[in-house]
Amino acid sequence: MAVTRSILLFVLAAFAEIGGCWLIWQAVREHRTWLLALGGVVALGAYGFVAAAQPDGAFGRVLAAYGGVFVAGSLAWGVLVDGFRPTVWDITGACVCLVGAGLIIYQPRA
Questions:
Q1: In total, how many domains does the chain have?
Q2: What sections of the protein cross the membrane (predicted)?
Q3: Taking all residues of the chain, what is their mean pLDDT, rounded to a whole number?
Q4: What range defines the domain where residue 91 resides?
Q5: For position 16, what pLDDT does the model report?
Q6: Are 61 and 20 contacting, i.e. CB atoms less than 8 angstroms apart?
Q7: Residues 6 or more apart whose Cβ sits within 8 Å of residue 33
Q8: Is residue 72 part of a domain?
């Protein structure tokens, strides 16, 4: 159950961080309303709380593992929201990152 909770928290953290960055990008780079930037700031703040809810108490380990989730999540966001078409290298790199994330956070501990 702890692994399932952890995975769900990683997905929620990715949604909050990537979504927050995307909202700010829309306001700044796409010249849309600054209310989007405000929503992005709120989402980025929420990301911090979600990351802190991870069962593992080691900040460095959680954030390092989340880095792999962020890479894959960013590419997925691009595909689903922006029509981005990843290359086979993008997908391969994201898979390597997810394997690395899994090794970091779910390694057996004594």
A1: 1
A2: 7-28, 34-51, 63-81, 87-106
A3: 96
A4: 2-105
A5: 98
A6: no
A7: 27
A8: yes
N-terminal to C-terminal alpha carbon distance within the chain: 19
Tokens linked to 4: 């399932």
Q: Would you call 54 exposed, middle or buried from its count of C-beta atoms within 10 A (0-12, 13-18, 19+)?
A: buried
CA dist., res. 21 & res. 47, Å (int): 11
In a domain, 70, yes or no: yes
Q: Is residue 110 part of a domain?
A: no
- Please tell me whether residue 13 adopts helix, strand or coil conformation: helix
C-beta contacts of 35-43 below 8 A and 24+ residues apart? 43/16, 43/17, 43/19
pLDDT tier for residue 1 given thresholds of 50, 70 and 90: confident
Q: What is the pLDDT of residue 29?
A: 97
Q: What is the pTM of this model?
A: 0.91
Residue 36 in any domain: the answer is yes
Q: Residue 12: its pLDDT value, please?
A: 98
